[in-house]
Amino acid sequence: MTASKREKDLARQRAERQAARKAAASARTRQRRAVLASVLAVLLVAVGVGALAASLAGGEDEAIAPAAAPSSSTAASTPASANPAAAGTCAYDKSGEASRKVELPPTTGVETRQPFVATLATNVGNISFELLTAKAPCTVNSFRSLAHFQFFDDTPCHRLTTGGIFVLQCGDPTGSGSGGPGYQFAEENLEGATYPRGTVAGAKTAAPGTTGSQFFLVYKDSPLPPQYTPFGRITAGLDVLDKIAAAGSEPEGDGKPKTEVTITTARVKAKA
């Protein structure tokens, strides 16, 4: 083998070894990049899952948006059976101490159609009113229950208003205006509610869902906001209310009736 041929073979071998080393280096680089990409992908998935879990679990400082109110079209299409009161189911929440010991009214099997007549026998005359069962079943159910337990017997009508609104308020055995049955419940029959002469409605605080045992008798049309459940219509005894109102209140305009008014008995019977 000549020297020139040997030099050519050695040069070719060097070139082949260099090419092999470059190929091996490139393969190692690709492998490292593939491993890094895999690790990065795993990390990204882990971060994504963690973020999703955090968004679902929430945290102590997270504000939860309230559910959207149903649209008017949805509300209009809601069947009557979706209304618990219409289905004969009512809710009464315990609240405070009862001024007299009574049991909670029934919460199921509540009458929703049968009208009743209530008669308040007072020291100044009787007042009768029809209970509007179909329009305010839970309120009527409560009133009937309280009358059954004689909650209203021998109790004062503690408030008379003779200016702005015109009502006689009763239903608190303590006569203080703060007594009640030890439970409260939601208002009913408020849509388009007005309070003309002869209305019987449930008294409440400014907060919703605070109707209890107190009620008021309207002896003259009164411009009240539709926040008080109208549950009765006076059929006899408006002349008794007129007599009480004519005597005035102390203090004048809104206070204790000057004519002492005591409900001796309150009785309810089914309307024939």
Topology:
Elements: H1 3-57, H2 72-77, E1 93-94, E2 116-122, E3 125-131, H3 137-148, E4 155-156, E5 159-161, E6 167-170, E7 183-184, E8 199-202, E9 215-218, E10 230-236, H4 238-247, E11 249-250, E12 254-257, E13 262-270
Antiparallel strand pairs: 1-7, 2-3, 2-13, 3-10, 4-13, 5-6, 5-12, 6-9, 8-9, 8-10, 11-12
Describe this structure in words.
The protein is an alpha+beta fold and 272 residues long. The protein has a domain at 83-270: Cyclophilin (Beta Barrel). It has helices at residues 3-57, 72-77, 137-148, 238-247, and strands spanning 93-94, 116-122, 125-131, 155-156, 159-161, 167-170, 183-184, 199-202, 215-218, 230-236, 249-250, 254-257, 262-270. Strands 4-13-2-3-10-8-9-6-5-12-11 form an eleven-stranded antiparallel β-sheet, covered by helices on one side. Strands 1-7 form a two-stranded antiparallel ribbon. The chain is elongated and about 130 Å long. Mean pLDDT is 80; it is low at 34-82.
* Major β-sheet strand ordering: 4-13-2-3-10-8-9-6-5-12-11
Looking at the chains present, what oligomeric state does this protein adopt? single chain
Which CATH C-level class of the domain at 83-270 is it?
Mainly Beta
Strand content: 15-25%
User: How does the overall form come out from the CA principal axes?
Assistant: elongated
Protein structure class: alpha+beta
Helical percentage: 25-40%
The CATH architecture of the domain at 83-270 can be given as Beta Barrel
CATH superfamily of the domain at 83-270: Cyclophilin-like
Mean pLDDT: 80
Distance between the termini: 136 Å
| Total count of helical runs of at least 4 residues | 4
> Rg to the nearest angstrom?
40 Å
Uncertain regions spanning at least 5 consecutive residues? 34-82
The description of the largest β-sheet is: 11 strands, antiparallel
Q: Quick one: how many beta strands?
A: 13
Order of SSEs: HHEEEHEEEEEEEHEEE
